[in-house]
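Final report, results section. Input specification for complex C-07:
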Amino acid sequence: MFIWIIKRDLLLAIRRQSDVLTTLFFFIIVVSLFPLSVGPEMNMLRTMAPGVVWVAALLASMLSLCRIFSNDYLDGTLEQMLLSPQSLSFLVLGKTLAHWLVTGVPLVLMAPVLGIQYDLPVDALLVLTATLLLGTPVLSLIGAIGAALTLGLRGGSVLVSLLVLPLYIPILIFGAGAVEANMAGVGFDAHLSLIGAFLLVSLVFAPWAAASSLRVSLE
Amino acid sequence: MLQGINLACVRGDRELFKDVNFSLEAGGLMQVRGPNGSGKTSLLRMLCGLSNPAAGEIHWCGTAIRSLNGDYFAAVTYIGHLSGTKDDLTVIENLRISSALSGFEVSIAEANEALGYIGLGGREALPVKVLSQGQKRRVALARLLVCKTPLWILDEPLVALDVMAVKLIQELLEQHLQQGGMVVMTTHQEIEIAVASITQLQLA
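Structure output:
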């Protein structure tokens, strides 16, 4: 059943590519705007690169959050998922995983290419990609809770940002921090371990919390 | 057996119904009647376990459905106002995915057979968004053929269906009831179902 839900969401993403491409292009454009506006000051670009890429990744993933559940809510398929004999947390985990594959993975793959605009050294690019690889699933998982809580509310998308962005802050700090530490020549293992810990904790709690919120939202 | 004990429903500060009692045995059909806004859909959603009654209990085989959770969902097929189909998926993908999520994995051949029976033969590979309202309804109702659950909860299943399809659903319901299944449904259309035990539940 877990496989079915992932297959379903990926199939839907393929049929509606515009949703996926919007997120990706938003990310690409925001990251590219900074070097253009700040000018070719290499040292400054290098210092701001990790922060800019991470903030852009946060905003890009925010952009697609509302869609995790809202389409399914509108056509009644979410109702059917609630009535599935399979535990709802498990289905939510599947949906979140599919959401990450569709919106998170393209960001991770694009990040090293975009980082070149900031004159980042190769090892910093690798660290940046690694932090995004560990961090973007956390964004999807925490975002799923926000999306579930605001389901069916008017102005839900604004509310999601207000609910979820504060929770993203630790990931932002440690994600950007890891790259800065690497460029300063200090170890970045601690940062990565902390993001890994966030990932594990949210893997356990976020699907459960989102599932409970969905039950309340649909009552 | 499905049993409702002193059920009440409150929406905002309005009480839609209270003290609703019923008991449905194997092979029984319950028709929920009442004017628009009398709480028919709310009652059906309670019976599915989607919402909790403001008062009272719903029992399935003697146990409260709240404590059964997954085991109860495995016994119920609910077809509500919303069709529960994805517009971007094809007819057969919709059927196979929705039945898989209800715990019944069907092969392509089985799904094709069910779609042929419900009158969608030859349209399996069309995306649902190009179908007519009645055909969309048929896609949703095709789940009844592949999900072998004892209890069907149907909210206005006949809406948008043509005469042939209504007859088909009527046959399907009779067959299901003869095999010891249970059906709870609402409908504003008259439907003749030859069945031994039929309960009418009138909501004020």
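Residues 48 and 114 of chain B are 24 Å apart (CA to CA). The two ends of chain B are 25 Å apart (CA to CA). This concludes the modelling results for the funded period.
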